[in-house]
Design goal:
The complex is a heterodimer of chains A (about 150) and B (about 625). Chain A is an alpha+beta fold and about 150 residues long. Chain A has helices at about 5-15, 25-35, 40-50, 55-60, 85, 90-100, 145-150, and strands spanning about 75-80, 115-120, 130-135, 135-140. In chain A, helix 1 packs antiparallel against helix 2 and helix 2 (about 25-35) packs across helix 3. The two termini of chain A are about 30 Å apart. Chain B has five domains: about 5-110, Glutaredoxin (3-Layer(aba) Sandwich), CATH 3.40.30; about 130-340, NADH-ubiquinone oxidoreductase 51kDa subunit (Rossmann fold, 3-Layer(aba) Sandwich); about 350-440, Ubiquitin-like (UB roll), CATH 3.10.20; about 445-530, Up-down Bundle (de novo design (two linked rop proteins)), CATH 1.20.1440; about 545-615, Alpha-Beta Plaits, CATH 3.30.70.20. Classes of the chains: A alpha+beta (about 150), B alpha/beta (about 625). Chains A and B meet through helix 2 and helix 5 of A and helix 1, strand 10, strand 12, strand 16 and helix 17 of B.
């Protein structure tokens, strides 16, 4: 279940909009923060507070790329492979993450340390390739410095 | 107020923060304190300066000395030399690319001096987290004028007369949009901001939201007054955490200053503004899809009419403007429509911000008057293709404009003036302003394939032409790049493109074929050599190339041998090297590593021939 504080947060969102459905996207983020991913319990909890059917919530959540439909590792790597990053070798980084950490695209490394998600352009083209690790931006990535950067995330 | 003898404007944009400008900031503060200069020298952490390629960047005023690529180790020396002894540090200055001599003043660097800053008027000059600094640069003066000296109709007229067109991509006249929504009467109207920047290679909106969030809010307040909206929402990508944080702070500050909320500037006008986070769907940049997203639905576009100006968010009249459009508003109100029109052309007035990326020397954000030739942006401001000056260096091939809705413009059209009406003639569009430069090492068929992969993936799935059409085109392009293309493919692709353009519901589908059409139009021979000769001359499509060493050119430096991860390159030092075709995986590492241009790319058949000639090695 959601904590009391979180329920209050979702209730406040619900009041902001002319229809409780306006609170769906932010509420799903909140539930994802609390549960780590959008587990069946997460949908259940949001559904109860907002009074919106779970089916509708799932329908909405599955449309957007930033909701997690399975548990993620301790750190979430969101790597951009879009055009500017691709020109500067982002695809090689994808192979490196797979070979070195065993993190497949859309999957998690066997030790549960990293989950890898491929992002569409994250607007960091000025210093491509780029990635977000959790909420930290890293750019000018190379096969050498990416492992160095990831060392900081245990 | 504290008076300082020097101001250090250190860039705190995402680019510079990622290259560790926070550490530089800490080192600066510590060193200034150590030297007892805290009452003489002020450090300002500014928004994005734009010259991201050279970050972290710092400009020292009053002299206007520009420093680049700073590290914390440089700081003690810099503080001692420049701030104590008055000797600017040449080593840390920008270097002119030809002769590598230092250019001390920011105003003398071509990247900066060909630009005209209107949207980016405050870049590198203010701390985006302080409303006072925005106000000190005429911030909220436009709003004050609009609220106290103008009627809503007058505001609309000025914006209409300025000729400002939507900077998000479609280029619809902003004033007209406001006029339509202003005419409708309703108890509630919405003023919305589109910060769902998603075009690959575009980051101007992110930069504006991060570097000057108040300029967006001011534009929204003025728009709200013009159309009579009491509610506003800024829809931002969740992928931009710094922009979200700074916008939230700016909204809070504007509230405290009486510029948002109830009774704005004592005029009795109320405007409630909040932020809504997107969740990673490109199509939500389309206006009707964005509104559905805020309503808690799947972000799918709906047919127009009714237009959002009549029936938009929650069924109420709504205006949605792009971040950059809104940042243009306050100066237009303040200085008038004639001032705005003094730059640009009849149909494309004012300035436009472009994001220069890809194979170009000066990567970054640039703002230029509309109507200047593409060549000026790429060669003079952008410094030309990266690595073009080296022997056997790269050459310009194309510039991609408008992301997945745009197209690739070849060298022969670089004198095209940058205006909505001229760029569209090339088959590309201005779009949101991404300019991705490609050199001769890029394969244009792969590029088209890449954009189709993007649109096929981002298609919301509602209308069949887009959902199925993009997928069919993608399959065909995959076949071509994998060596399974058929001679009729080019014509079939062109046919399909026409159908998708004319029958898709929203802008995403209607423009998705543009990358394919423009690459066929300008680089048809590349398609033909992929299909007929099974040859990707750029060496990108792995199954369509053979890498061989030109023995006459090879110096035997061994760079290719070191780059090869497969152990396929062999040879003695100072003697021509050789590539074992059996081990080669066509990754192109040797080609990229060679400084002498001695690796040639042949067709797939060449490799098969070579393999046949070599007796199989038994292990």
């Amino acid at each position: 279940m959601l904590s009391d504080k979180t329920i209050e947060e979702v209730e406040a969102l619900k009041r902001r909009y002319p229809d409780p459905r306006g609170a769906i996207l932010p509420s799903l983020y909140i539930a994802q923060r609390e549960f780590g991913w959008l587990s069946p319990e997460a949908f259940e909890a949001v559904s109860i507070v907002l009074g919106v059917p779970k089916a509708h919530l799932r329908g909405v959540a599955s449309f957007y790329a930033m909701y997690r439909h399975k548990p993620v590792g301790r750190h979430l790597i969101q790597l951009c492979t879009n055009v500017s990053c691709m020109i500067f070798g982002a695809e090689d980084l994808v192979s490196l993450l797979k070979n070195r950490y065993g993190a497949e695209v859309g999957g998690t490394s066997p030790d549960g340390r990293f989950s890898l998600v491929i992002m569409e352009c994250i607007g960091a083209c000025e210093a491509a390739p780029a990635m977000l690790v959790n909420e930290d931006f890293h750019n000018n990535l190379t096969e050498n410095n990416i492992t160095e950067i990831l060392e900081k995330y245990k | 107020m504290q008076q300082y003898r020097a101001h250090l404007m250190l860039c705190g944009g995402t680019g510079c923060i990622a290259s560790e400008s926070l550490k530089v900031k800490e080192a600066l503060s510590a060193e200034i304190k150590k030297r007892g200069l805290e009452n003489e020298v002020n450090v300002v952490f500014t928004g994005c300066n734009g010259f991201c390629a050279e970050g972290p960047i710092m400009t020292v005023y009053p002299e206007g000395i520009f420093y680049e690529r700073l590290t914390e180790k440089d700081i003690p020396f810099l503080v001692e030399e420049h701030l104590l002894k008055g000797r600017p540090v040449e080593r840390l200055m920008y270097k002119e690319p030809e002769k590598r001599h230092a250019v001390p003043a920011m105003k003398d660097i071509p990247f900066f001096n060909l630009q005209v800053l209107r949207v980016l008027r405050n870049k590198g000059l203010i701390d985006p987290e302080k409303i006072e600094e925005y106000i000190a640069r005429d911030g909220y003066m436009g709003a004050a004028k609009a609220f106290t000296e103008m009627t809503p109709a007058e505001i609309v007229t000025v914006v209409k007369d300025s000729g400002l067109r939507g900077r998000g991509g479609a280029g619809f006249p902003t004033g007209l949009k406001w006029e339509l929504a202003g005419r409708v009467s309703s108890d509630t109207k919405y003023m919305l901001c589109n910060g769902d920047e998603g075009d690959p290679g575009a980051f101007m909106d992110r930069s504006v939201m991060e570097a000057d969030p108040h300029s967006v809010i001011e534009g929204m307040i003025i728009g709200a007054r013009a159309i009579g909206a009491n509610k506003g929402v800024i829809y931002v990508r969740a992928e931009y955490p710094l922009a979200v944080q700074r916008l939230n702070l700016a909204i809070e500050q504007a509230h405290e200053a009486g510029l948002l909320g109830e009774d704005i500037l004592g005029t009795g006008f109320n405007f409630d503004l909040s932020i809504y986070l997107g969740a990673g769907a490109f199509v939500c940049g389309e206006e009707t899809a964005l509104m559905r997203s805020i309503e808690g639905k799947r972000g799918m576009p709906i047919p127009r009419p009714p237009f959002p100006a009549q029936k938009g968010l929650w069924g109420k009249p709504s205006v949605l403007n792009n971040v950059e459009t809104l940042a243009q508003i306050a100066p237009i109100i303040l200085h008038g429509s004639d001032w705005y029109r003094s730059l640009g052309t009849e149909k494309s007035s004012g300035t436009k911000v472009f994001a220069l990326t890809g194979a170009i020397s000066n990567v970054g954000l640039v703002e230029v008057p509309m109507g200047i030739p593409l060549r000026t942006i790429i060669n003079d401001i952008g410094g030309g293709v990266k690595g073009a000056r080296k022997k056997g260096g790269r050459t310009f091939k194309a510039v991609q404009m408008g992301g997945p809705s745009g197209g690739c413009i070849p060298e022969s059209l670089l004198d095209t003036p940058v205006t909505y009406e001229d760029i569209v003639q090339t088959g590309a569009i201005i779009g949101s302003g991404g300019m991705v430069v490609m050199d001769d090492s890029n394969c244009m068929v792969s590029m088209a394939r890449f954009f189709l992969e993007f649109t096929a993936d981002e298609s919301c799935g509602k209308c069949p032409p887009c959902r199925i059409g993009t997928k069919v085109m993608l399959d065909m392009l995959n076949d071509i790049t994998e060596g399974n293309g058929k001679e009729s493919d080019i014509e079939t692709l062109q046919d399909l493109c026409g159908d998708i353009i004319s029958t898709s519901l929203c802008g995403l589908g209607q423009t998705a074929p543009n990358p394919v059409l423009t690459t066929i139009k300008y680089f048809r021979e590349e398609y033909e050599s992929h299909i007929k000769d099974k040859w990707c001359k750029a060496g990108v499509c792995r199954s369509l190339c053979t890498f061989i060493v030109d023995e006459k050119v090879c110096t035997g430096c061994g760079a290719c041998q070191r780059a090869c991860t497969q152990g396929a390159v062999t040879g003695e030092k100072k003697k021509p090297h050789e590539i074992n075709q059996e081990l080669c995986i066509q990754c192109r590492a040797c080609y990229d590593a060679c400084k002498f241009g001695s690796i040639n790319i042949g067709p797939a058949a060449m490799r098969e021939g070579l393999l046949k000639d070599t007796p199989a090695v038994s292990v």
